[in-house]
């Protein structure tokens, strides 16, 4: 992990003194199921710049406004291996944590608990997950998070890490809950299609092009 940090610092310094044209992001929004990016497998971050730091700050604001405690990059239409957490869910309270290129391993135990998702507003289901996992990741300042976590923090980390793999909590529901939630999921699908028809969201081809440009900017090198 140390080599990754030094390469990021070098890229950030080069970007500061020799800036190059880049894909610029404005007006981030939380996207809802079944938006294409929610199923896009995120790629490792190879570059940290001012824009990425601004993105993370804006992600926290979006998360607090939506009354959430975690948010993954692809929930704001970004193909990056990055997610944020604040277990308190309140700005100015608790610990704001940023996980870049996380690796979740060594699961232990099994427990069931209710989960929801900011990209599936109003939907909740009981989900089984390991009770404890080991997590290794960077933050934007090069600090390493490398330890075993359990209980609620372990669950939130696993939930957000699933997002980076294109996995939603509904994929982990039992068959009974999935059937019970079918109408609500269909409503979200119809809402997205309506937005597409009204040109409130771009065509899938344009979304894929945008994701590829962002991957070239932040995930190459």
At a glance:
With 221 residues, this protein is an alpha+beta fold. The chain is built from 6 helices and 7 strands, in the order ααβββββββαααα.
Explain this structure.
The strands form two sheets. This protein has a five-stranded antiparallel beta sheet. Strands 4-5 form a two-stranded antiparallel sheet. A hairpin with a 5-residue loop joins strand 6 and strand 7. It is α+β, with helices and mostly antiparallel strands. About 2% of the residues have low confidence. Helix content is 38%, strand content 20%. The chain has six helices and seven strands, in the order H-H-E-E-E-E-E-E-E-H-H-H-H. It has one domain: Peptide Deformylase.
Task: Compile the SSE list and pairings.
Blueprint: H1 2-17, H2 50-65, E1 70-72, E2 82-85, E3 97-108, E4 111-116, E5 124-129, E6 132-138, E7 144-150, H3 151-164, H4 175-180, H5 182-197, H6 204-218
Antiparallel strand pairs: 1-2, 2-3, 3-6, 4-5, 6-7
Q: According to CATH, what is the class?
A: Alpha Beta
CATH architecture: Alpha-Beta Complex
The count of strands amounts to 7
Helical content, roughly? 25-40%
Keyphrases for this structure?
alpha+beta; two-stranded antiparallel sheet; single chain; 221 residues; 7 strands; globular; Peptide Deformylase; 5-stranded antiparallel sheet
